[in-house]
Amino acid sequence: MTEHLQITSASGTFDAIAAGPADGRPVLLLHGFPQSATIWEEQLTALGDRGFRAVAPDTRGYSPGVRPMRADAYGVSELVGDVLAVADALDWDRFDLVGHDWGGAVAWWTAARHAERLRTLTAVSTPHPGALSEALRADDDQRRRFQYQQDWRSPETEARFLADDAALLRSLYQGKVPGRQVDAYVERLSEPGALSAALNYYRADRPDAAVGKIQVPTLYVWGAEDVAFGATTAHATEQWVSGSYSFHALHGVGHWVPDEVPEVLTSLIVDHLNEN
User: 180-189 long-range contacts, Cβ below 8 Å, gap at least 24?
Assistant: First the structure.
């Protein structure tokens, strides 16, 4: 059973959902585009039942209390700063960090910059940024997969996504996300300024985005049918982790891993936390 929180932090006030005892081992879960904290409901409940204190915020741009409209407010320092601000507001000195999609990218950046704050890292779908950068330079397949990111920088993207009852936005979920969840995401992103804020993750320039090797124990879970991240970058991620590393390629699974195989993902996360 999850509870709703408002977390007042140095970055602003984040909406969040949580589960588990207040004194449980802390786990922070970050969502991506175009979703919200509710993507983690299955994992929150499972972790809470096992005695962890699991918290999933609606991240920058998705929480109305942290919704700057400038693209330059979505740089690496700002996004990583939010993670630490939430943890500090919760009085967490060290915590386990889980992220999917953009949440995965932010999780990698946080692990690279603040390894001392993390017990473990779990990245879902999103490969290490260094492995991704190399693939974008050398792999035609990965460049083709990422063309949409350039397209979404257009100022016309919001109107295209929301036209015809958000038909294009709804198509992104590929029929893999429950309809009630899709309706909730569309409702949230239809709020004034919300979709523009979410798209600022793609529109921000990030000259400080370089990431070295990750030292904390890392679990990487990738769906082999992911339309955004190809096999080259997924398999190369191991080279960018110097700490203990576990990689699970899920065959027949696409980008929306938490929705497509929630029980499998929960089991992998719990095992990873228990081993570290």
Answer: 181/35, 181/38, 181/39, 181/259, 184/36, 184/38, 185/34, 185/35, 185/36, 188/36, 188/58, 188/62, 189/34, 189/161, 189/162
- State the residue range of the domain holding 58: 3-275
Considering its fold, how many domains does the chain have in total?
1
Show the low-confidence residues of the chain (pLDDT under 70): 209
pTM summary value: 0.97
**Closest Cα partner for 175 from 110, 235, 254, 81?**
254
Hunting for tokens 């919760």 — which residue is that? 90
- Say if CB 124 and CB 228 are below 8 A apart: no
State pLDDT tens for residues 170-219: 999 999 999 999 999 999 999 999 999 999 999 998 877 678 999 999 99
CATH of the domain at 203: 3.40.50.1820
Under 8 Å between Cβ of 6 and 86: no
According to DSSP, residue 128 is labeled P
Per-residue model confidence as pLDDT tens digits over 2-20: 999 999 999 999 999 999 9
Q: Which residue has the tokens 């940024």?
A: 129
